[in-house]
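quick one if you have a minute, typing this from the bus. theres a chain ive been looking at and ive put its sequence and its fold in token form underneath. please have a look and point out which stretches look like helix strand or loop to you. anything you notice is useful, everything is just below.

***
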Amino acid sequence: MDPAGLEELRNVTVGGEAVPESVVETWAPGRNLYNGYGPTETTIMVLVSAPMTAEGPVRLGGVLRATELVVLDSRLQPVPIGAAGELYVSGLGLTRGYHDRSGLTAERFIASPFGEATSECTAPGMSCGGYRLRLAMN
């Protein structure tokens, strides 16, 4: 979509799939462009970025309330800062599975490798959104 004619649009949140740099380069100049990431298994989004710039990297941003995220390796262990892994989501906004699709539910949802709920807002289950990323400090 071309932003021409939408110059007065000041705040835009992009959601769904990973945000390509080309989208940020096209839409960020002159407005606040946010990355609102959320896998299908959550009610809407679980992370929202600060406004992005055309010159900067695409960031996922901070976690929303009542949601917990962890980046795990292939053995379901947390990855260190700078390492790549897969994003897992838990919390109140996470669905408990797919209706009448037990096979897909078993594939996409796991028991938390950390045992019981890690906080009062987290169910002991987690979902893998299939999103590979590199864990960064900011």
In short: The beta strands are 11-16, 32-37, 47-48, 62-63, 67-72, 84-91, 109-111, 125-134. Residues 21-27 form the longest helix (7 residues). Residues 11-134 form a domain with the Luciferase; domain 3 fold (CATH 2.30.38.10). The radius of gyration is 16 Å.
